[in-house]
Specification:
Site (Contributes to redox potential value): 46-47
InterPro entries: Thioredoxin (IPR005746), Thioredoxin-like_sf (IPR036249), Thioredoxin_CS (IPR017937), Thioredoxin_domain (IPR013766)
CATH topology: Glutaredoxin
CATH superfamily: Glutaredoxin
Keywords: Disulfide bond, Electron transport, Redox-active center, Transport
Structural class: alpha/beta
CATH architecture: 3-Layer(aba) Sandwich
Number of helices: 4
Site (Deprotonates C-terminal active site Cys): 39
Oligomer: single chain
Domain Thioredoxin: 5-119
Strand content: 15-25%
Number of strands: 5
Largest sheet: 5 strands, mixed
Length: 119
Protein backbone atom coordinates (compact mmCIF):
# COMPACT_ATOMS: atom_id res chain seq x y z
CA UNK A 1 0.00 0.00 0.00
CA UNK A 2 1.32 3.43 -0.90
CA UNK A 3 0.38 6.53 1.03
CA UNK A 4 0.67 9.99 -0.48
CA UNK A 5 3.06 12.20 1.50
CA UNK A 6 0.54 15.03 1.30
CA UNK A 7 -1.79 13.09 3.62
CA UNK A 8 0.38 13.99 6.59
CA UNK A 9 2.10 17.05 7.94
CA UNK A 10 4.36 17.99 10.78
CA UNK A 11 1.26 18.25 12.97
CA UNK A 12 -0.36 15.01 11.77
CA UNK A 13 1.61 11.93 10.80
CA UNK A 14 0.22 9.18 8.56
CA UNK A 15 -1.12 6.13 10.39
CA UNK A 16 0.34 3.75 7.78
CA UNK A 17 3.97 3.45 6.68
CA UNK A 18 4.90 5.46 3.58
CA UNK A 19 6.67 3.63 0.78
CA UNK A 20 9.51 5.81 -0.48
CA UNK A 21 10.10 5.91 -4.23
CA UNK A 22 13.50 7.63 -4.30
CA UNK A 23 15.85 10.15 -2.73
CA UNK A 24 13.70 13.21 -3.50
CA UNK A 25 10.64 11.52 -1.99
CA UNK A 26 12.57 10.59 1.17
CA UNK A 27 13.91 14.15 1.44
CA UNK A 28 10.33 15.48 1.17
CA UNK A 29 9.05 13.08 3.84
CA UNK A 30 11.88 13.99 6.23
CA UNK A 31 11.39 17.73 5.69
CA UNK A 32 7.58 17.62 6.03
CA UNK A 33 7.39 15.57 9.25
CA UNK A 34 8.93 16.27 12.66
CA UNK A 35 10.03 12.69 13.42
CA UNK A 36 10.57 10.06 10.72
CA UNK A 37 11.68 6.46 11.26
CA UNK A 38 13.00 5.03 7.98
CA UNK A 39 13.00 1.26 7.57
CA UNK A 40 15.53 0.11 4.96
CA UNK A 41 14.23 -3.39 4.16
CA UNK A 42 14.21 -6.19 1.60
CA UNK A 43 11.34 -8.50 0.66
CA UNK A 44 13.56 -11.59 1.10
CA UNK A 45 14.66 -10.57 4.63
CA UNK A 46 13.13 -12.64 7.46
CA UNK A 47 13.81 -10.11 10.26
CA UNK A 48 12.33 -7.37 8.01
CA UNK A 49 9.09 -9.35 7.73
CA UNK A 50 9.02 -9.80 11.52
CA UNK A 51 9.51 -6.06 11.98
CA UNK A 52 6.71 -5.07 9.58
CA UNK A 53 3.73 -5.45 11.98
CA UNK A 54 5.73 -3.68 14.71
CA UNK A 55 6.28 -0.70 12.39
CA UNK A 56 2.61 -0.75 11.31
CA UNK A 57 1.59 -0.48 14.98
CA UNK A 58 4.17 2.24 15.62
CA UNK A 59 2.81 4.29 12.71
CA UNK A 60 -0.71 4.03 14.14
CA UNK A 61 0.22 4.63 17.79
CA UNK A 62 2.85 7.39 17.70
CA UNK A 63 3.32 10.84 16.20
CA UNK A 64 6.27 9.58 14.17
CA UNK A 65 6.05 8.98 10.44
CA UNK A 66 7.25 5.54 9.35
CA UNK A 67 8.88 5.42 5.92
CA UNK A 68 9.95 2.25 4.13
CA UNK A 69 12.77 1.99 1.58
CA UNK A 70 13.17 -1.23 -0.43
CA UNK A 71 16.96 -1.61 -0.68
CA UNK A 72 16.70 -3.78 -3.79
CA UNK A 73 14.76 -1.08 -5.66
CA UNK A 74 16.76 1.83 -4.21
CA UNK A 75 20.33 0.57 -3.88
CA UNK A 76 21.92 4.01 -4.33
CA UNK A 77 19.66 5.54 -1.66
CA UNK A 78 20.51 2.73 0.77
CA UNK A 79 24.19 3.19 -0.01
CA UNK A 80 23.96 6.93 0.62
CA UNK A 81 22.80 6.15 4.17
CA UNK A 82 25.51 3.55 4.76
CA UNK A 83 23.09 0.63 4.86
CA UNK A 84 25.18 -2.55 5.03
CA UNK A 85 22.50 -4.94 6.28
CA UNK A 86 18.74 -5.15 6.55
CA UNK A 87 16.73 -4.16 8.35
CA UNK A 88 18.43 -0.84 9.04
CA UNK A 89 16.40 1.82 10.84
CA UNK A 90 17.32 5.49 10.49
CA UNK A 91 15.63 8.04 12.74
CA UNK A 92 15.24 11.66 11.69
CA UNK A 93 14.13 14.51 13.96
CA UNK A 94 13.74 18.09 12.79
CA UNK A 95 15.03 17.16 9.33
CA UNK A 96 18.33 15.72 10.63
CA UNK A 97 19.36 12.08 11.06
CA UNK A 98 19.78 11.49 14.79
CA UNK A 99 20.13 7.70 15.08
CA UNK A 100 20.71 4.58 13.00
CA UNK A 101 20.37 0.93 14.04
CA UNK A 102 20.97 -2.27 12.08
CA UNK A 103 18.84 -5.29 12.89
CA UNK A 104 15.31 -5.74 14.16
CA UNK A 105 14.67 -3.97 17.44
CA UNK A 106 11.95 -5.07 19.89
CA UNK A 107 8.69 -3.11 19.79
CA UNK A 108 9.20 -1.50 23.21
CA UNK A 109 12.70 -0.29 22.29
CA UNK A 110 11.45 1.19 19.01
CA UNK A 111 8.60 2.93 20.78
CA UNK A 112 10.98 4.42 23.36
CA UNK A 113 13.38 5.48 20.60
CA UNK A 114 10.62 7.34 18.75
CA UNK A 115 9.07 8.83 21.87
CA UNK A 116 12.44 10.30 22.88
CA UNK A 117 12.08 12.65 19.89
CA UNK A 118 8.29 13.14 19.71
CA UNK A 119 7.68 14.44 23.23
Amino acid sequence: MTTDIDSGSAAHSPTDPLHVDGKDHLDDVVSEHDVVLVDFFADWCGPCKMLEPVLDDLAAETDATIAKVDVDQHQQLAGAYGVRGVPTLALFAGGEQVEQHTGALPADRLQTLVENYTE
